[in-house]
Protein: Cysteine hydrolase family protein
Amino acid sequence: MSKHAVVVIDLQNEYLPTGKLPLTGIETAVANAARIIAHARDQGVPVIHVQHQSLSAEAPIFVPGSDGIEIQATVVPQAGEPVVVKHYPNAFRETNLKQLLDQRGIESLVVVGAMSHMCIDAGVRAAADMGYAVTVIHDACATLDLEFGGVRVPAAQVHAALMAALAFAYATLEATDAYLAD
Structure:
């Protein structure tokens, strides 16, 4: 069996209803992510947290030093769990994430977090392109409504479209209960 890790992407206060960029279904996604993280910890599986921070204090969201960048209390890292700070949607871009994974001999990833259509998408595709086997826990991820060309796309449809695309060629998709039952 390959060595694996849980990668928790951007479950930060900014995405809560009290944050500047609230996501649809974030509370459920975080609760499911907490279950995945607890299971990993019980099994001795490494948990690596990714935290988005804007490069500028003038940014509208994820401002360095703000409450919005803090990892949500429900999934806060424990002592010894690395936190990778990123400035771009792709968690591997200009970070030490790949180095942390390679140092631990990690071959497969279980990914949870936010936003489905942005940082989950970018990170999962990058991980797969680098040769990692990736499982996305789809109900431990969240997103928001989007708009394009005057058409509003509800968050549930955004999420479903992204999960379908990832499942097509980049990752295995599982629900929390199914994953924990394995």
